[in-house]
From TrEMBL:
This is Uncharacterized protein YndB with AHSA1/START domain. InterPro entries: ASHA1/2-like_C, START-like_dom_sf. Residues 24-154 form the Activator of Hsp90 ATPase homologue 1/2-like C-terminal domain. It holds the Pfam family AHSA1.
Length: 157
């Protein structure tokens, strides 16, 4: 008799995990996450591309970005603090959207591993923990769209 796995813990549906294989070495993929000029070329979904990125790339340093709606002009500011930086291997940082009053909203933790796969990169991206499964799903759509853009950028290198 087959068993069905059912998530029963408190974080069910509120942890986002995305894996991608990029046709570029880990150092190049890591650079795309650490260089603000490169981030401007891919960060954000297609309909909300980044218009601003700044980064103090050191443990304890901050990052900040703005995504602009192509349709309405809405600006979505967000930022966080770097928690771990291992060039070409790992990156971890907090992530929070700005609220209407300018203060940060719910803080999540993003952890990214970059693993060499014969000259390509296996990226494992995890963001947690969201308030609701719907928030998690929204980020899944947004990050996947951004990673599609990243894949296109890496293909140009």
């Amino acid at each position: 008799m087959a068993q069905t796995n059912v998530e029963t813990n408190a974080s069910a549906g509120r942890v986002l995990t995305i894996t991608r294989i990029f046709s570029a070495p880990p150092a190049l993929v890591f650079d795309a996450f650490s260089d603000p000029k490169r981030m401007l070329q891919w960060l954000g979904p297609r309909d909300y591309p980044a218009s601003y990125v700044e980064s103090d790339m050191r443990v304890g340093g901050t990052w900040r970005a703005c995504l602009d709606s192509q349709a309405s002009g809405e600006k979505l500011w967000h930022g966080g603090v770097y928690r771990e930086i291992v060039p070409g291997k790992r990156l971890a940082f907090t992530f929070a959207w700005d609220q209407a009053d300018g203060r940060p909203g719910l803080e999540t933790l993003v952890k990214i591993n970059f693993e060499d796969q014969n000259g390509k990169t296996l990226m494992t991206f995890q963001q947690s923990e969201f308030d609701t499964p719907e928030d998690c799903d929204g980020h899944r759509e947004g990050w996947n769209s951004a990673f599609d853009r990243l894949e296109e950028l890496l293909a140009q290198d």
